[in-house]
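Renewal narrative, Specific Aim 1. Our central claim is that a sequence can be written position by position from structural information alone. The example that follows is taken directly from our test logs and has not been curated for this report. It begins with the structure tokens describing the chain, in the order in which they were read.
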């Protein structure tokens, strides 16, 4: 990811991160040379952490709360780069609707850089034996329903009621970019596990794509 960002060149750029969570990557974008960085997320609690982190790091990032689909029109056409990283597309029931957001936020010639989990990972149950037993269709069209909170560590997760994880095959990601008028410049499938340790067994042997980098550009 860092190499891809350096290849694009962040110097003097105005960067947005969609679904930025606690803002650690938004802050890193400024550490890599961005002139300004704005993180958007629906969670006020995560954005409080993000503001605290940015203060500690001495980086003047801006954090905006709300549903990404409803980002205010004042931001339209203002960003040189929009970044989306691991764990965002699963929240999105409709990728075409989601991709319309970076498409309007980018200035003409601006880019989107996506570093996400590869949908192949959804074929398998976490921590199952054997790890590579296919349990779900790659073309599954219903979301996974979870009952426990999503936690980053391996500790206990409290029961929070139903939440949904939407599965999008690679073709859907690519088609949604094309549909939003964004021209693909780079697509790289990678064997690296960028998710939780639950995927470590899948990553062993580096047999499967577990993540990808996808870069696209808005026309001038
Ligand atoms: C799993 S986190 C991953 C974010 C980031 N890649 C990271 O690693 O920290 C997903 C984030 O998306 C946010 N999110 C999900 N749906 C959203 C929506 N419709 N609008 C804004 N934020 C959303 C959640 O609040 C959460 O912080």
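The sequence written for that structure reads:
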């Amino acid at each position: 990811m860092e190499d891809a960002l350096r290849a694009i060149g962040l110097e003097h750029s105005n960067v947005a991160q969609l679904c930025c969570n606690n803002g650690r990557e938004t802050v890193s974008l400024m550490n890599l040379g961005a002139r300004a960085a704005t993180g958007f997320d629906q969670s006020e609690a995560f954005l409080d952490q993000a503001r605290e982190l940015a203060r500690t790091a001495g980086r003047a990032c801006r954090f905006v709360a709300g549903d990404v689909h409803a980002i205010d029109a004042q931001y339209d056409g203002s960003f040189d780069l929009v970044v989306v990283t691991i764990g965002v597309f699963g929240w999105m029931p409709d990728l075409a609707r989601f991709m319309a957001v970076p498409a309007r936020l980018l200035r003409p010639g601006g880019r989107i850089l996506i570093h996400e989990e590869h949908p192949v990972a959804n074929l398998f149950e976490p921590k199952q034996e054997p790890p590579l037993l296919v349990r779900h269709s790659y073309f599954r069209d219903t979301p996974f329903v979870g009952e426990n909170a999503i936690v980053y560590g391996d500790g206990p997760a409290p029961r929070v009621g139903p939440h949904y994880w939407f599965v999008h095959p690679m073709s859907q990601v690519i088609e949604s970019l094309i549909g939003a008028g964004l021209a693909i410049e780079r697509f790289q499938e990678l064997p690296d596990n960028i998710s939780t340790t639950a995927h470590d067994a899948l990553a062993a042997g580096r047999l499967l794509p577990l993540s990808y980098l996808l870069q696209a550009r808005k026309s001038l």
